[in-house]
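Let us work through a complete example step by step.
Step 1: write down the sequence.
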Amino acid sequence: MDLKLNGKVAVITGAASAKGIGNAVARSLAGEGAMIVVSDIIEEGIQTLAADLQTGDIRTLAIRADQSKLSDVELAIETVIAEFGRLDILVNCAALTNNYGTVARMAPEKWEREIGINLNGAFYWIQQALSIMKDNKWGRIINISSVAGNFGTTGLPCYAVTKGAIHTLTKQVARENANSGITCNCLVLGIIATEIYERSGIDQATVDRLVEHIPMKRMGQPAEVASMATFLCSEQASYVTGAVMPVDGAFSISV
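Step 2: predict the structure and record it as C-alpha cells.
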C-alpha cells in the first residue's frame, strides 16, 4: 500500500532511545519516504538515529530540545522550516515518569516537571506545528499516550493525569481543525517492550504478572505502535480524527 508520505516532513519527539517508540516511528516513517526530524533532551541518541536514517533520498535532522520550554520548541520549529521549508507530520512521543509513589507523597517540583514535559510540551509542539499546517491545509498530529490515562495507575500519579489530559487535548485539536485538512489522533498504549521497565528497575517477576493481565499474553512491540502511527499519518486515514485508539492487546477491555 502506498501511504503517499514520500517527501513529507515529520517531526518525532522523544526519539533518543534505541528501543523506544519514537525511534520505531521515525524508522517506519522514513521507510515510507518521509523526511525525518527527531527531537529529544538526550542529544546523543537522536544524532545516532538521524545519521542511521540519512540516505540519498531521506534527509534527516536531530534537534536537542527541552520541550517543557516554549522557547526551545519555537527554536526547533524555526530550524525545521529553515532546513526543509515545511512541516507535515508531528508525532508526540516524549514523556517522563518522574515519580513512583502517590499523589499525597509526590514532590511538587517533580509534579511540575512532569506536567511540563508530558502535557505542556505536547501543547507547545502542537501549537507551533498548527501555525504551519494551517497554511498548507494539510497536517497529521499523532499523540502517544497510555492506558494509565484511562484508569490511573499505581505508583505513577502525574503520568496518569497527564496522559488523561492528552486524550482530551487530542479531541480538542481534532475538533478545532477538522475542516482544515489537519487530523489529530491519539494512540493509547498498553504494555510495550521498551527500556522503561529496565530503567525503572521493575523485576522480571513483576513484568510477568503484568503480562498475565493482557488477553494476548504478551507485550506489544514498538514496531507495532509505529505501524499504526504511520497509517494515521497517511492519506488513507484522512477521515480519522479525534480518535483515542487503544494499542494494547485488549488490555483496556479486560480490566
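Step 3: interpret the result. The mean pLDDT is 94.
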